[in-house]
Structure formats: C-alpha cells, structure tokens
Amino acid sequence: MPADTYEDAYQLGGAKFADKLAALVKTGKKTATSSGFELYTIEQDPLPNAGVYNIILNRADKPVALTFTDNVFVTPFMKVTADIAKREGEDDQSLASWREVHQAFFSQEYQANGIQFDPESSMVVVEEFHTVYPVVQTR
C-alpha cells in the first residue's frame, strides 16, 4: 500500500500485546483503542485523526489489518464508558476489566516517560475504527 494512502502503521499495546490485539482487530472484535493523552504531549506527537486509514502490525512488525478511523476523542480515564470497554474487545469486555488492565498498562507507560498516571485526573485518547481488510462480516 502506498505510504500516502494511510496515516500510520503501528502495533497496538506494544510488542507484549501486539499479536493478541492485532488478532482481535483482524476478526473485527476490537473496534476501539485507547492511549494516554499526556504521552502525546511529552513525546510531542500529534493526536490521531479521524477519517484516515492505518495499518495494524503484529509483534514482528508485519501488517495484519487495515483499519479506518471513524472517530477520535479525549476523555478522562474514569469517564470511559462500558461501550468503549466492550468495543476494545479485550478480556471479558467489561468496564471493570478495562479499567484494571488499562490502569496497569498506562501506569507502566507513564512511568517509562517520567510521569505518573493518575486514574482520577489522567486523560485518554479513544480511537473508534472499523477493519477494512481483511474484510470482516458484520451481522
């Protein structure tokens, strides 16, 4: 795919979780992802955009899926909804599980960047997307 037709190619969740999360995207079970807002500021990275294609990579940095980002928004960690937790497609898809897993993940990511993650005040960037390729049959 020509580089000017997609915005980014990346692993979800870093190398540790890349294969698991890419498989969820590939099957259409995962249609949302979240990242720490404050990390974009520290790393001076632009926020993701809606209306763009992205390539999801596995742990070996091989492409496994093409997604289209439908919506991007920033919300407090504690305001992430049960719907978003379900759309993330991970574990039992409950909000409680989402908070537990993501608080641990964000805490490690923030610490690696010299800041502290606070679930009461930290913000998350939520990306809602759909898988374009491989084609996923929806009901």
UniProtKB/TrEMBL annotation:
Domain ASCH: 10-133
Family annotation (InterPro entries): ASCH_domain, DUF984, PUA-like_sf
SMART domains: ASCH
Highest taxon of the lineage: Bacteria
Listed name of the protein: ASCH domain-containing protein
Organism for this UniProt entry: Lacticaseibacillus paracasei subsp. paracasei CNCM I-4270
